[in-house]
Amino acid sequence: MDRADQSTSPHTTAYNGARRVLTGNWVGASTVPSRSLYPHQWSWDSAFIAIGLRHLWPLRAQRELETLLAAQWDDGRVPHIVFNPSVPLAAYFPSPDFWRSSSAGTACGAPRATETSGLVQPPVHALAAWLVHRADPVSSRQRGFLRRMYPRLVAWQRYLTGARDLGGHGLASIVHPWESGMDNSPCWDPPLSRIEPVGSDTFHRADLDHGRADDRPTDLDYGRYVRLAENYRDHGYRDHDCGHPFAVEDPGVNALLVLSEYALAEIAGALGRDPADHLVRVEELTNALVKRLWDEESGLFLPFDVIAGETVREHSAAGLIPLVLPGLPERTARALVRTARGPRFGLGDTTRMVPSYDLTGHAHDPSRYWRGPAWFNVNWLVERGLRRHGELSLANGLRAELIHLAARSRYAEYVDPVSGEARGTRDFSWTAAVTIDLLT
Ligand code: 9WN
User: What positions carry a catalytic annotation?
Assistant: First the structure.
């Protein structure tokens, strides 16, 4: 801490630090999650980043989302990575020459002039667009921000509820662990175990040039990630004839889909359109989520493996995310709060932040990525959910920890859920962004 910081409050220090991270990671038309580990634009990162940026520079927040959605494919998908052509190929794996979106994705309408991945990530974007608009409605209206974003956001949501309803029950499926945003969650171990990995000598993991191997997914995980992505690419990223070997209904992705559908209703209203269609979908999606993914026994939402036709009985923080939904049945919300406070997640008791995976689970590892560490974006969603359902004291406690640990960890990518010790990369954008949002 320098002299200037000593005379300021911890909140001012946290705010200034977060602002410094977001300033440093802005690359002209978007923000990189991390200058070293993730040097391109990532889809759900940009949504969280825009939610923070709106308090600092509303125009930059609008721009962040506009840049991402400019890379949308004609079939509606918003790619999980938009590549920066000035970054060397070796800086990140898999690089554009792996995905070959502009040639392999032709049938799905991938952009010609921008290279992207062919996968998607959780749909936080309509929520982000709505919050960004509300931060500065005057400039948003002048620039036609919502008017331009709305059709793109609708197409994105319809891609997920249409081509991605692989289970036929009104929920979206992910077709690759990267699509959950929670890459090596133990939830994906059973469906991934059926995938033949490619040899680890066939690719070079650029992530290990920047991150500790113990904090990252294993080579075996990567062998399977590569196999799945290659298969999708070699089928032209077409969902209907790809024979997806991995298809899972994830509660986190589907809860965010519903939350964004609420936001689309708000956006439609602000544009003078009828929001009824969005509200009908909100109800249908919420019902499908509860019917198909709620597990009474554990008091948590669990993923459903569409290929095996069975529930994945692993307990991850993704199953708590539906708490953000206003329309969740009250008894389900109450049960989720009990689970968050119970031995699996220890909120307000044994943990400082909600761990990404069950503390009592056989695969729990407090250091390894999505197998135990606590992540700031997920905890921001849980904090909103707690507040939404009237759990103010738990929400306030979590908010205080998030702000404190973000600053203390130098805006770490993730932290040990019990000690709060920093893990992963530092100066991570969404950690800074949610800190700004919680402080404003
Ligand atoms: C693969 C950028 C992304 C996040 C994900 C996180 C991690 C990428 C990786 O980084 O995934 O998409 O290379 O490990 O798991 O949630 O969006 O921050």
Answer: 183, 413
Q: Which atom of ligand 1 is nearest to the CA of 34?
A: 18
Helix 145-161 × helix 58-70 angle, to 10°: 40
Q: What is the mean pLDDT of the chain?
A: 97
Provide the phi-psi class of 427: left if phi over 0, else alpha when psi is between -120 and 50, else beta: left
Average pLDDT over residues 375-397: 98
Q: How far is the CA of 33 from the centre of ligand 1 (A)?
A: 9
Tokens of 243: 């024979």
Q: Provide the pLDDT for residue 307.
A: 98
Tell me the best of 41, 42, 45, 413 to mutate to test the pocket of ligand 1, counting ligand atoms within 8 Å of each CB and taking the most. Answer: 42
Whether 29 and 67 have beta carbons less than 8 Å apart is answered as yes
In this structure, the residue with its CA closest to atom 16 of ligand 1 is: 181
Q: Which fold would CATH assign to domain 3-439?
A: Glycosyltransferase (1.50.10)
Please give the distance, rounded to the nearest whole angstrom, from the Cα atom of residue 335 to the centre of ligand 1: 30
What distance in Å separates the CA atoms of residue 417 and residue 436, rounded to the nearest whole number? Answer: 21
**18 and 432 Cβ atoms separated by less than 8 Å:** yes
CA 146 to chain centre: 22
Residue pair 355/26 in contact (Cβ under 8 Å)? The answer is no
Mean pLDDT over residues 62-67, rounded?
Answer: 99
> Cα of 34 to ligand 1 centre, how many Å?
10
Per-residue pLDDT tens over the stretch 213-263: 998 999 999 999 999 999 999 999 999 988 999 999 999 999 999 999 999
Q: Which helix (H) or strand (E) holds 82?
A: strand 81-82
| Domain residue extents for the chain | 3-439
Our separate counts of H helices and E strands in the chain read 17, 10
Among 324, 423, 421, which residue's Cα sits nearest to residue 371?
423
**For residue range 103-158, what is the model confidence (pLDDT) as tens digits?**
999 999 999 999 999 999 999 999 999 999 999 999 999 999 999 999 999 999 99
Average pLDDT of span 259-277: 98
Among protein residues, the one with the nearest Cα to ligand 1's atom 1 is 178
Q: What angle do CA 170, 224, 322 make, to 5 degrees?
A: 35
